[in-house]
Design goal:
Elements: E1 10-14, H1 16-33, E2 39-45, H2 49-56, E3 64-75, E4 78-87, E5 97-105, H3 109-119, E6 125-133, E7 147-151, E8 157-158, E9 174-177
Parallel strand pairs: 2-3, 2-5, 5-6, 6-7
Antiparallel strand pairs: 1-9, 3-4, 8-9
Helix pairs in contact: 1-2
Bound molecules: inosinic acid (IMP) and magnesium ion.
Length: about 180
Amino acid sequence: MTTEFINQNLETLYSAEQIKSRVQELGKQITNDYADKDLVLVGVLKGSCVFMADLMREIDLKLSIDFMAVSSYKDGTVSTGDVEILKDLTNPIRDKDVIVCEDIVDTGLTLFRLTEILGSRGASSIKIATLLDKPEPRIKKELEIDYCGFQIPNRFVVGYGLDAAGRYRNLPFIAAVRNPAEI
Ligand code: IMP
Ligand code: MG
């Protein structure tokens, strides 16, 4: 990729190659852990779409996929922990082994609430796979992250599914934004 789309305001944190090899490792781990299970990957739209598309092709099992879209209620810029379901799953998850796929865990409040909601629907198990985890700003509700691509510093990042005001999701790498006011 060339052009002004990639600019001085972006600092590469993880290259496409680095992401690929980490996603391969996660896929192998999940393949081993879910050998005899009825696995459903649940992607949280929109941020997880790139990660999940790559991750599922690294899992050597018969699995199915589904998607949810949620919006976190924010009080200003601070998450309140309440989530509204904008798009629900297509199929029931009763007796299924669910892995919720996220782009990034920041405060952890969205996923905490989402796993509570999914937990009430009778799944056999619910685990979390996130590409990125920002451990530092966690307010935090105890949230167990089972599969994590990379732990990153408390910076705003874009690319590989992550957006700034809806843009930059299609960058093939992950970049930190130097000056968020200028993105
Ligand atoms: P939280 O864990 O409830 O605070 O919310 C996580 C959500 O906030 C993620 O799914 C992203 O949509 C968004 N988010 C948090 N940090 C970033 C970032 O650095 N870049 C892009 N989106 C982010
Ligand atoms: Mg998100």
